[in-house]
Design goal:
269 residues, 4-stranded antiparallel beta sheet, 42% helix
């Protein structure tokens, strides 16, 4: 049975057959020959959808981990060098093209807020920045965006939310090797002195909330059996609604610390 994700043992134990055959995983292909030779190939796809084979070498000289890294580098080169882009002049993919491309879309599709982030990036980030090669954008360009938003009378909290969305773009671009530096680390958030303090629940309110959620004698209690764990995660771990809804079983580790990996857009804790 083919595993969901290849392992080194799975590749090593692929059977030798009378005729050569292929195994594929996310564009990475290994071809097994009757002689016992196993060769890696990666099919990189440019921004127009054209697929090009890139030969990476033979297994086990090239391990599974090495083949995956080589495949990632080859795909990133499409964005870095601007392959198959009209009028790119080898300057690279623009900000607008990157946010609409597979790398950024795949990175964000797990978040419930991805649609809102995309809508904000498309409507708020000026066309000037959309048309700039992403590896040419500087903190000065982002600072100009901030100043323009302030002149429009936008609240500092709103501008900070805009910056959070832009940070997600450069974080993914940096992690994928498209840019050498995450410039947004040099762009601080605005100090918002208009934010009102949010009051926490008192101990009595917390107790009554939990007791009510766990009371299965109430009408239609069977419909909200899931609420106690949601409430405890919110109260005890400080998680927000979207952070809780994004959790999957693989995020919960039953180690000595009983830790949970939580996606909070800018980092993981």
């Amino acid at each position: 049975m083919t595993p969901k994700r290849w392992t080194e043992t799975y590749i090593r134990n692929l059977p030798i057959k009378e005729k050569e055959y292929n195994e594929n995983e996310d564009g990475l292909r290994i071809r097994i020959y009757p002689s016992g030779t196993k060769k890696w190939t990666y099919y990189k796809q440019d921004l127009r959808g054209k697929r090009t084979p890139v030969h990476l070498g033979s297994f086990p000289a090239i391990s599974l981990e090495q083949a995956r890294k080589m495949a990632a580098v080859n795909q990133a080169n499409i964005y870095t060098e601007g392959h198959a882009l009209l009028d790119s002049n080898n300057k690279g993919i623009t900000f607008g093209q990157f946010i609409e491309g597979d790398i950024y879309q795949m990175a964000g599709k797990r978040r419930l807020s991805h649609y809102e982030i995309m809508s904000n990036l498309r409507s708020v980030v000026p066309q000037k920045i959309h048309n700039m090669p992403i590896n040419h954008i500087t903190p000065t360009d982002i600072q100009g965006f901030i100043e323009d938003r302030e002149k429009e009378g936008k609240k500092k909290g709103t501008i900070n939310k805009n910056l959070t969305n832009i940070r997600s773009v450069f974080r993914v671009a940096f992690n994928s090797g498209l840019v050498d530096e995450n410039i947004m680390k040099k762009v601080p958030a605005l100090v918002d002195d208009t934010v009102t303090e949010k009051m926490a629940l008192t101990d009595d309110e917390r107790k009554r909330l939990i007791d009510t959620a766990e009371d299965m004698s109430l009408d239609q209690a069977y419909k909200r059996k899931h609420l106690p764990i949601f409430i405890h995660l919110g109260l005890d771990a400080g998680l927000r609604k979207r952070e809780i809804l994004n959790l999957r079983w693989k995020d919960i580790r039953n180690d000595s610390l009983r830790t949970i990996d939580v996606d909070i857009q800018t980092s993981k804790y």
